[in-house]
């Protein structure tokens, strides 16, 4: 979505799909770009590519060797019934791993079927997010990551452009 030429694996399946960390260049517009790092997932249970402890260790090592970091974008699903304690734990693990000098922002995905403006998802779920340890003041966007062709079939193609624009704006406004 951010780096169309990257050809990164994506999946809505129950199993993880990112086998190794990869770095991509993302054009943010306005002659600005950034490096985006696709990493393995955490707490994917038996469906993950690595047991959670190994995945955590690998991710911490990757984050330490990928310096300097300026921003961490934490993606989490927003579909009904998808918010779990693990999302709060992972948010805390990420913020702890990168330290206080690196901003962490949240991108809530999977909202193509949400009724109403996507950004209202955050307000609707603010209390549960806070209970998970995700502050209401954290920079965030609520989006869909479905391909434009899929959204066109659903007659929601406008969500693709808006989602791309919103994520790029979030990144630009939080880069240090």
Which SSEs are present, and which pair or pack?
Layout: E1 22-29, E2 32-38, H1 52-65, E3 71-77, H2 85-98, E4 103-109, H3 120-132, E5 140-142, H4 148-153, H5 158-174
Parallel strand pairs: 3-4, 4-5
Antiparallel strand pairs: 1-2
Structural features, described:
This protein has 176 residues and is an alpha/beta fold. 36% of the residues lie in helices and 18% in strands. It has five helices and five strands, in the order E-E-H-E-H-E-H-E-H-H.
Key words describing this protein structure:
5 strands, 18% strand, alpha/beta, 176 residues, single chain, globular
Assembly form of the protein = single chain
Q: H/E element string?
A: EEHEHEHEHH
Tally of helical runs: 5
* Uncertain parts: none
Q: Tell me the major beta sheet.
A: 3 strands, parallel
* Helix share bin: 25-40%
Distance between the termini: 23 Å
Instruction: State the strand order across the main sheet.
Output: 3-4-5
Instruction: Note the beta-strand portion.
Output: 15-25%
Could you tell me the radius of gyration in angstroms?
A: 16 Å
Shape, per Cα inertia axes: globular
Rounded average pLDDT: 84
Q: Number of DSSP strands? A: 5
Category by helix and strand content:
alpha/beta
């Amino acid at each position: 979505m951010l780096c169309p030429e990257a050809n990164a694996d994506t999946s809505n399946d129950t199993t993880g799909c990112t086998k190794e960390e990869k770095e991509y260049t993302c054009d943010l517009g306005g002659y600005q770009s950034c490096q985006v790092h696709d990493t393995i997932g955490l707490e994917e249970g038996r469906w993950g590519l690595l047991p959670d402890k190994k995945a955590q260790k690998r991710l911490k090592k990757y984050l330490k060797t990928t310096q300097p970091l300026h921003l961490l974008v934490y993606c989490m699903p927003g579909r009904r019934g998808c918010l779990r304690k693990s999302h709060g734990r992972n948010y805390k693990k990420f913020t702890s791993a990168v330290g206080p000098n690196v901003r962490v922002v949240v991108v809530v995905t999977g909202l193509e079927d949400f009724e109403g403006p996507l950004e209202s998802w955050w307000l609707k779920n603010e209390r549960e997010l806070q209970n998970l340890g995700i502050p209401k003041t954290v920079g965030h966007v609520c989006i869909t990551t479905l391909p434009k062709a899929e959204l066109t079939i659903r007659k929601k193609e406008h969500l693709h452009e808006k989602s791309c624009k919103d994520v790029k704006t979030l990144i630009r406004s939080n880069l240090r």
